[in-house]
Design a protein that fits this description.
This protein is an all-beta fold. It is about 0% helix and about 35% strand. It has strands at about 20-25, 30, 40, 55, 60-65, 70-75, 80-85, 95-100, 100-105, 110-115, 120, 135, 140. A hairpin with a 6-residue loop joins strand 1 (about 20-25) and strand 2. The two termini are about 10 Å apart.
Length: about 140
């Protein structure tokens, strides 16, 4: 899928989530290493536009799985949005839901933290790969 480098990624690339992310402000946000890969905070300026989701679709402390895009977007704290591949690193299943502070895989019970995609419970041993997004007004878009 164009614009989504981790589309279909099984997480075996060893992504650590330390790449630069996007923080809001200005016309399209600025890149900053402290935001973390796949992170977007603030509104990025502008007046919205279309994206694959609205910020109001993503609950604080939770998230939403976008099965068609094979990504999951979380909002660990108010106004901070993160995005990860929705492909479980254990067996390649699409994660099923986000609840209780974790991204949950229905196949074998793996759980990943909403804040950084790291493993909260096995059998998965590797984190979900981060996917770059940006927030433009109330729209969440792939970066």
């Amino acid at each position: 899928m164009a614009g989504c480098a981790a589309y279909g990624d099984t997480g075996t690339s060893g992504s650590t989530g330390t790449d630069a992310g996007t923080t809001g402000g200005g016309a399209g946000g600025t890149t900053g290493a402290d935001a973390g890969a796949g992170a977007s905070t603030g509104n990025g300026g502008g007046g919205g536009g279309t994206g694959f989701a609205k910020t109001s679709d993503i609950p604080v402390g939770g998230g939403k799985v976008f099965e068609n895009e094979k990504i999951v977007v979380t909002q660990p704290t108010a106004g901070t949005f993160k995005c990860f591949t929705a492909i479980c690193t254990h067996a390649g299943c699409v994660v099923g839901d986000v609840s209780g502070g974790t991204i949950n895989c229905p196949c074998h019970g793996s759980k990943f933290k909403v804040a950084d995609g790291s493993v909260a419970g096995g059998p998965a041993k590797k984190a979900l790969a981060a996917v770059a997004i940006k927030v433009d007004g109330d729209a969440i878009k792939k970066a």
